[in-house]
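Researcher: We're teaching a course module on how sequence relates to structure. For the next exercise, students receive a sequence and then see the predicted structure as tokens, so they can try to spot secondary structure elements on their own. Here is the exercise chain.
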Amino acid sequence: MRIAICDDEKTYIEKLKNDINSLQTHENEFEFSEFESGESFIEQFSKDKYDLVILDIEMKDLNGLQTAEFLRQIDKNVILIFMTSFDKFVYQGYEVKAFRYILKNQPKSIYLKQLSDTVQEYYRNKKYIKVIDDGIEKELLTVDILYIEVYSHQIVIHTLNKHYYQKGKLGDYEKMLEGCLFVRSDKSVLINITNIDYIKKNQVFLKNGKSLYVSRNHLENITKAFLKFSRSRWG
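Model: And here is the predicted structure for the students to work with:
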């Protein structure tokens, strides 16, 4: 996992590296790049260069929010978290799609949990299922799936740009996607929680504008799952 840390306090960069390394297992390895200003980070940044970018907000000259705005112009998908001693900037973080907003002075157990969640998010984003597309087997990232439904005795996997018609049972896909934040909205539809924009009454509205019906039996469960996911984004 390629991690860029941008903070004008060298001692804090070293502390952060040590804390992240404490999360390392045989399944994940961390490679760090260090920057002590937003300007030095921007000078070398390019799309897909890092898997995770950690920015301090209160840096001199170019602050973390300004650096993040530049970053998002080039790479809209890299996982971004802010580190800061203050919580007054939290809502501005939404504008650049930050995954986490972590306070430096909070209890270490909470801080480490948030870092661990971020690492798990990275690996969750890499998970895929195999589908048949025009007779060819291909890998489909689970984060790209909006929802899966049973339609006319087939499984239809809906993404933003394409629909994949597959054989099988919805229950099999539900087991296959365990841990990937998919929840049923009724007996024939499985929705990716991460692609929900909001829930209103008995309708789920996805980020692409599509709305889906939620049955009474599944409304409480999908609402709880969505709220839990939404709250987890900010620790």
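Model: If you want an answer key for the exercise: The helical segments are 10-21, 38-44, 64-74, 90-95, 108-125, 170-176, 216-232. Residues 56 and 182 are 33 Å apart (CA to CA).
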